[in-house]
Amino acid sequence: MTDTALYDIPGPMARRRHLIYGLVSTAVILGIVAGVIYLLFDTNQFTAEKWRPFAYEGIQELLLRGLGNTLKAFAYAAVLSLALGGLLAAGRLSEHRILRWTATLFVEFFRAMPVLVMIFFVFVALKVQPLPALVTGLTLYNGSVLAEVFRSGVNSVDRGQREAAYALGMRKTQVMTHVLVPQAVRAMLPTIISQLVVALKDTSLGFLITYEEFLHAGKLIASNLDYGLPFIPVVMVISPIYIGMCMLLSWFATWVARRQRRSLKTEAVEVAPAEPGTLLPGAGQIHP
């Protein structure tokens, strides 16, 4: 009864209509997929010539090296972005006006600046190597976005938690580290992982500054005339790997959230029942 309190149970005609809608939608989707597959076959995208390079050991090593470089750039950018985001969030939450204004100006500027512009500026104007230039651009942008995520997460904690901690005599640093941040992490975690997924995908911008990452390796293979310019096969190989890495990050976020829910710190503490004969202090005294 409670499961259907907010809507009417569909009748026979409605169920029949929903079934027809489902069948039509499925047929349309299958038709689109069949059309795409037909175009791929019609343009000779599945010929042995275009897929032959993936059987060569040198091509496989090139892709693996590019994938390793992508993961390396992402690891640096993720760690530095989280650190920079925490530092900027602390500045924005500071009671000192100068620190708060400085952090706000930094966040608003780099959050509005396109990532590619920052990467090119560091690479061309400052003459930095491709990997540091890519990591710097990703860190400045994603760190600024994460700063707002951290600040919003801390401010979303019930105000009573903060007031109760101050009433116990805790300092602001203790309130932040022991009360507000642990509670805010649960609310922030999905957004943090989503922003890290953005950082992972943005590592593909490294090929524009000749950084030998995964997309750069695929570009070298796709532009090879000896294999008939296998652009579509390269996309069909690289795209699932990018999607798999992003799904792995999402799975990791779900696993961490589940671990937090099962943490001993958040589980209810069972209180032993009172035993017979337990007396309150002074209950056994006899008063004249």
What does this structure look like?
- The chain has 288 residues and is an all-alpha fold.
- The protein has helices spanning 12-42, 48-51, 57-92, 97-112, 115-125, 130-155, 159-167, 172-202, 214-222, 231-261.
- It is flat, with a radius of gyration of 28 Å.
In short:
With 288 residues, the chain is mostly helical.
Would you spell out the secondary-structure blueprint of this structure?
Blueprint: H1 12-42, H2 48-51, H3 57-92, H4 97-112, H5 115-125, H6 130-155, H7 159-167, H8 172-202, H9 214-222, H10 231-261
Helix pairs in contact: 3-4, 3-6, 3-9, 4-6, 5-6, 6-8, 7-8, 8-10, 9-10
The share of residues in extended strands comes to under 5%
Query: What's the main sheet like?
Result: none
**Structural class based on helices, strands and sheet pairing:** mainly alpha
Q: Strand-and-helix sequence, N→C?
A: HHHHHHHHHH
Which stretches are low in confidence, meaning pLDDT under 50 for 5 or more residues running? 266-272, 277-288
Q: Give the number of helices.
A: 10
What number is the mean pLDDT? 82
The level of helicity is over 70%
Strand tally = 0
Oligomer: single chain
Radius of gyration: 28 Å
How far apart the termini lie comes to 62 Å
Shape: flat
